[in-house]
Known about the structure:
The chain is 36% helix and 24% strand. The chain has helices at 11-27, 41-44, 50-53, 61-68, 127-136, 149-158, 168-173, 207-213, 219-235, 280-305, and strands spanning 2-7, 32-37, 74-78, 90-94, 103-107, 121-123, 141-143, 163-167, 182-184, 198-203, 243-250, 253-261, 268-275. The chain is built from ten helices and 13 strands.
Amino acid sequence: MVLRIGTRASKLALAQAQWVRERISAHYPxxxxxxxxxxxxxxxxxxxxxSTIGGKGLFVKExxxxxxxxxxxxxxxxxxxxxxxxxxxLSIGAIPEREDxxxxxxxxxxxxxxxxxxxxxxxxxxxxxAAQLLHYRPDLEIVPLRGNVDTRIRKLxxxxxxxxxxxxxxxxxxxxxxxxxxxxxxxxxxPAIGQGALGLxxxxxxxxxxxxxxxxDHYPTRVAVEAERAFLKELKGGxxxxxxCFGKLTGCTLSLDGMVADVRGERVVRDNVSGPPQEAKAxxxxxxxxxxxAGARGILDEIYKR
Length: 306
């Protein structure tokens, strides 16, 4: 029997898919597990910030199409790239335990954020990261930055930047955690929806594969991510908006922190809720409605008009 795992061809995506492959192979020694690479729209367009390209699912659409055509059996995604609404015939069959969800700073020198000179150039193409950073340090200059993790680290020097912001999870999965200068706690810079988590997407009709990969599902991660994605869905937002949400299950309580900001970080609307994990999606929806009423609706309307 052969199981085909679909993935992007970037080094990080391949590392993530290989992680899944190794665990499935160890669990089913007689199963042949293959990786199938798929090039997505987000991979093809490399010279523009993601926020200017538009649309949803820039890094998943073509992989989902391969799944629907049965060219692959499982799609492995970074959940932060996956739109809140999936195609009707697909579902997230398993969400493994989350890697570090925080954002981190990699500085050219070792100076902490507070000591960076006025006007320092900080590389990121994430509106969410830029808005939260500018809210704290409006004097900084944001430089658009795209590329694989190792490419971004190289650009730190070649583009004369003082620092870049990336996800801790990607660095750790690539064995590059030694480059981290500073970790932004989640209560300072709210992570992206699903950041640090992987999603194994399947065809709904394929119950056999769903049963096979269920051993990889991590309940605390699943309920946290389900709440975060419900927050995003209620906002009707895409992955490239200055929107953030982070859930964490502690004991029997799921806590959820959500944020919406304008692109300059001048207006930030933030709130939190908590409740039982069985109500994860309802908590995410409730939190979204609270931030919308508190001013986020006006912020998002202005962004959409642009």
